[in-house]
Automatic annotation (TrEMBL):
The ABC transporter domain, residue ranges: 4-241
InterPro entries (UniProt xref): AAA+_ATPase, ABC_transporter-like_ATP-bd, ABC_transpr_FbpC, ABC_transpr_MalK/UgpC-like, Mo/tungstate-bd_C_term_dom, NA-bd_OB-fold, OB_MalK-like, P-loop_NTPase
SMART domains xref list: AAA
Keyword match ATP-binding: yes
Keyword terms of this UniProt record: ATP-binding, Cell membrane, Membrane, Nucleotide-binding, Transport
Annotated PROSITE patterns: ABC_TRANSPORTER_2
UniProt record similarity statement: Belongs to the ABC transporter superfamily.
Protein name as catalogued: ABC transporter ATP-binding protein
Source species, domain of life: Bacteria
CDD domains assigned to the protein according to its UniProt record, in alphabetical order: ABC_Carb_Solutes_like (cd03259)
Lineage summary: Bacteria, Pseudomonadati, Pseudomonadota, Alphaproteobacteria, Rhodobacterales
Classification via Pfam families: ABC_tran, OB_MalK
SUPFAM superfamilies for this protein: MOP-like, P-loop containing nucleoside triphosphate hydrolases
Amino acid sequence: MAKITLEKMKHSYMPSPKGPQDYALKEIDVDWEDGGAYALLGPSGCGKSTLLNIISGLLVPSIGKVKFDGRDVTHLSPDQRNIAQVFQFPVIYDTMTVRQNLSFPLRNRGVDESTIATRVQAIAEMLEVTDMLDRRASGLSPDNKQKISMGRGLVRDDVNVVMFDEPLTVIDPHLKWKLRSKLKELHQRVKATMIYVTHDQTEALTFADQVVVMQDGEVVQIGTPVELFERPAHTFVGHFIGSPGMNVLPAELREGGAFFQGQNVTLEGAVDSAASGRIEIGIRPEFVSLGDTGIAAQVRKVADVGRHLVVEAMAGDHKIAAIMNGPAPLQGETVHLQFKPAQTRVYANGWIATGAAS
């Protein structure tokens, strides 16, 4: 296990990058503590896989350093970094039994047979595959094959980090929750440093203690699932996390406050005096309610998703979503939307520009 530090790191696939637009990864400074569970979350093309390949040693960054426990490993190969990686598709030997697959990483490193037997049994019990240890891997279902692939990554107790690159891609949706829960349980038991790469917010938020949200090669926010939901540092985080995502509305600043369609909107705290450029108000649908006063809007549609209603209303040309319980407003009805002040904030050029009230 290791603390992982990415120090002033950038990467470009171009031989002579001339500006930020030429970099797949902009400057990144990140510390991942020893034994933590982390997720890299973002859409396709945001730089997640590039970052993972740099950590694993498959890529050398154009600029900056990768350190494990303070030791510079930037130019070391994957085997010298002592890592384990689980990929999108199960990496196992179909002609081997489950026991032989789990034993292989240890036997390949000359571990004695007694230790191998103990480790394989322990991992098999964690993964709940002891009843199939002597079955050939070729006959396993896709989810069990991926369990074995995970087990191959976890069977060694000397790895610095275990990395998962979208490991549930090929798993049926109704089985994903089982493997997500199992992976979280495994982390709590083995206490290894784990990094999980995904574009799926549910996977990231249920697995990780800390989530690294990426967009266009940049880290836009690092935080706990609660922090990312409660107080997005960037409108992208608000959009990307949550279903539906955060409402982002154009606004203007005057008289020390924020105005949407001429109405003064009460905020969580004071607006940064340096805020300028594109000004927007962000409020999650969970904190929008219907009342007798507020922003006038016309209901466009109502979706009953079982646990609650999602009301979509139009305030002029701007869509505002609200999550609510109780009687549903009618399509076409005029309603008044109220924003919870403690959850209403201003963003300037995408970045948060209000301070939380003390």
